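Example is below:
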Amino acid sequence: MYLSALELQQATQGKWHHRTPGNLRCIKTDSRHFEHGDAFLALHGPHFDGHHYAHGLDGKACAFIGDHQGVKGWSDLATPQLEVQNTQFALGDIAHAWRKKLRNTTIVAITGSYGKTTVRSMLVHVFDALGMKTTATKGNLNNLIGVPMTLLGIPDDTDIAFIECGISEIGEMQRLSEIVHPDIVIFTGITAAHSEGLGGLRGVIYEKTQLLNHLSDQGWCALGHGVGEQLRDIHHHHCMGICVGYHMLGSQLTLSYGDEQASLSLPLPAAHWGENMAFVASIALQYTQRQQRCISLTELTKSLASWQPVQGRLQSISGINGCLILDDSYNANPVTMQAALHTLAAMPSRRIAILGDMAELGDVAISAHKQLDASQCDLLILVGKNMHGLYQQQAPSASLMWFANTDDFLAWVTHDFFTAQDTILIKASRSMRFDKIVSALNTDETFSPHAMKGLSQATKAARFHAQKPGSAHAV
């Protein structure tokens, strides 16, 4: 970022106090990661107020940005201060001011109920391989704070930037659209996931499409599987679907476009990865054609062949006693949960699924859990209140278990429960903290003893049995 004090004042309709600083190169909202010469923007919420941390940065920051009440508390500080009406809104305005200066950068906004991070990581991988300078969202910085920070971190010599846009409340996507002004919008897939607070599936669809409100004049959008039918009323925009065909046999993926075919081997027999790669290849072909650049499907496939999943998104890692862990613990919704189960079903070894509650599903939460098909699992371990519905749907079996919460499972499981013959899928919404299970099974540390006294009353009340190779366990 490189903005003058006047540009910041104009973008935010703010007012400078004390003196005006020189050009600002970096804005930080976290005092813990502050470096000399950064500008500090004080965010505040129900349980914190960033204005209180400015005193510790006086003399180190080149400027402070705060609201009226916060600036009143900075009267004894000599650092230049920009007073704005609302600091979170100002952050978006500043990011938009920088976005307007990125005239040679293609801004790609990615949204959807699922697949955003995987599609984004594949796109970055492909466009890096094409020799383009890319920038992309890091981690889960895809909200009204994360998106502006991502924009502000885009160097002015970037060729293409991929920005995830996620929402949880009505009106958020409209604001993100105002900030980002995308050149390309990508819809990965839309379901009722995270519909709590958005008015169900219809509300999710409506809110997601608000991202198109500030699409650039020559912009276009790409629609993932099934999205075209859901967004059938927006065809006045230039939209494209998946134009690259695909076929999977085990882990072998074959892509086709016109008369050309090319194949690659995936890290896992994950059919949804094959679909995502066909979608990414379609986007890359459309983009390069519009840039009047010739690229073959073979070249694209070669670049996709070296792609690896992002941590926590069906990543293969080694577990205790030689078992294989499919770490899909980052998040979950019904579509991605079922896709992960299908991938597990295609594995040749003993298939174990450790599944936790899917959050933010609103009125469909109970039915969404009950409708999951886990019939191909050799052992099904369910965790959480909502997963109890799926547990009750299953016939009593030695291969079925339920725990009230994550800590109950960790208190129960023993070090020698899993073997080298096991493939273990670990998946739940982030709120279930299944990363704790991944960490526990990814080490050779000794587990707590198998005992009832550490379990909650809800878990004690449930009847479950598990068949371990060579012995039986019942609690």
About this structure: Residues 271-290 form the longest helix (20 residues). The domain at 5-87 is CATH 3.40.1390.10 (Udp-n-acetylmuramoylalanyl-d-glutamate--2,6- Diaminopimelate Ligase; Chain: A, domain 1).
